[in-house]
Design goal:
Layout (H helix, E strand, L loop, with lengths): L1 H14 L4 H8 L3 H15 L4 E3 L4 E3 L1 H21 L6 H4 L2 E7 L4 H15 L3 E7 L13 E5 L7 E9 L3 E3 L1 H7 L14 E5 L4 E2 L2 E2 L5 E2 L6 E3 L2 H9 L5 E2 L2 H10 L3 E3 L8 E8 L6 H15 L6
Helix pairs in contact: 1-2, 1-3, 1-4, 2-3, 6-10
Amino acid sequence: MNKEIELLRIFRVAAESSSFRDAAVRLSTSPQGVTRAIQQLEQHYGEVLFHRSTRQVRISAFGEGLLDQVRPALERFEELWRVPGRDEQTSLSGTVRITAPLSLGTRAVLPALERVAARHPAITLDVRLSDRISNTVEEGIDVGVRLGFMRDSRFVARKAADMKFPIVAAPHLIRKVGVPDTIDALSRLPTTASMDLNTGRPWPWYFKAGRQWTPIAAAIVVDNADMELGAALAGIAFAQLPDYVVAPYIASGKLVRVLEKEESSAWGLYVYRPQRGPVSGRVRAVFDEMLAAVKSLPALR
């Protein structure tokens, strides 16, 4: 069993590294040793885990699926192997810097950090909420939340939730202007536009089959999800918002979901931490609570 666990550990490190050579450095072994381990796993599964060329190594679709299973399994094993209480009190102190989108501030970040503060009062929590894409490494971020699959080898990422992007409106606005039956019909209706702070342009709305639609003559332009939610609840406009923002209001009838058949596939919400060698107890404590909080966000089925 030890051999199999070690093979999977090598696979995880290789998947999170820019090359087999980089993985070998992190594992204190040779690139040939990493290659042999990957080949053994490929023979076992009968699937290619990495596409290799003279210029790069890229994880395969099967490899990505295996990685999603391997990460939590290995982390659970490492947690079970750790001796409870050993240096626990001395390790769980110091500062942990966290970043997340604004819309997750009170919905996930605060509940997670309330639990951390109650259990580990010696940890100082430095929270930076922003919808801008931050330079996580340069800013010294320890734990973050990001939308979309993370392939950056500098980070360890765990998928916490699948997020949908429904189109919603208040019932009294629908009674006034009607329900759009096509995406193009949105052009004739009042909509919100949410500004991408990284580009200075409105975010496009996302639909199935990769289609995008950008509000041209929006009824209201905002720069955060809660203002957009407020505009939808007030009956000012139709809006496209993450399901963790609108699911409670859809359930209560305060918002109505439209164009459901045109919705895009769900996007992943990831909790991540940079690769900086051994993980301190304080970072692990915050990471685990953030993961649990994001997993418990409201969702649409």
